[in-house]
Amino acid sequence: RIPGIGKKTAERLVVELRDKLTALSTAEAEAAYQVATAAEAAVEAIREDVVSALINLGYGRSVAEQAVAATLAVETDHSMERILKQSLKRLFK
Question: Does the CA dihedral 63-64-66-71 come out positive or negative?
Fold first, then answer.
């Protein structure tokens, strides 16, 4: 209890704060979605670049795509250099 705050005022404050929290949660969710979308786009660009590099090295498209997909499935470091190196290792096995 807060002195000077009655039941009606407290209820009004709860309603107003709930609306603001909902708006804040929506904004946070949108920001998280944008970050996730940007990260997915970056990984997709790296995937395309590595597949292209493997094709330029003489590997077929389907073989290159399979190697890169398998590498991306287990690799946490999504730098182009790391994905290319690990994909080449898969192809040499």
Answer: positive
pTM: 0.66
Cα dihedral sign, 51-55-58-64 = positive
Q: Is residue 54 part of a domain?
A: yes
Domain span including residue 43:
7-92
**What was the pLDDT predicted at 92?**
92
Domain total for the chain? 1
79 within domain boundaries: yes
Q: Is residue 1 part of a domain?
A: no
Q: What pLDDT is attached to residue 49?
A: 96
| Residue among 78, 91, 18, 9 nearest 46 (CA) | 78
Q: Sort residue 75 into left (φ over 0), alpha (ψ -120 to 50) or beta.
A: beta
Tell me what pLDDT residue 46 has. Answer: 93
- Residue 2 forms part of a structural domain: no
Flag residues of the chain having pLDDT under 50: none
